[in-house]
Amino acid sequence: MKTIPLSTQRIDLALTQGTSDLLSVFDVVVQEVQVEAVILAAEIIEHNP
């Protein structure tokens, strides 16, 4: 797995230590927003089982 360089600006979406997988974060976010559509790349499933 590639790591993000420390010089790159980013937002940490970890909810709790050890729980930052995409679907856990997504489940919390969609409770707070109204989503009209979602488009996912095939790599999302491959790299986030």
UniProtKB/TrEMBL annotation:
> Which keywords describe this protein according to UniProt?
Isomerase
SUPFAM superfamilies found in the cross-reference section: RbsD-like (SSF102546)
| The enzyme's E.C. designation | 5.4.99.62
Give the transmembrane region(s): none
The EC class name is isomerase
Which molecular function terms from Gene Ontology are attached?
D-ribose pyranase activity; monosaccharide binding
Catalysed reaction(s) here are:
beta-D-ribopyranose = beta-D-ribofuranose
**GO terms for biological process, alphabetical:** monosaccharide metabolic process
Superkingdom classification of source: Bacteria
Q: Which InterPro entries does UniProt cross-reference here?
A: RbsD-like_sf, RbsD_FucU
Q: Name one Pfam family in it.
A: RbsD_FucU
Q: What is this protein called?
A: D-ribose pyranase
Native species: Xenorhabdus ehlersii
Q: What is the lineage of its organism?
A: Bacteria, Pseudomonadati, Pseudomonadota, Gammaproteobacteria, Enterobacterales
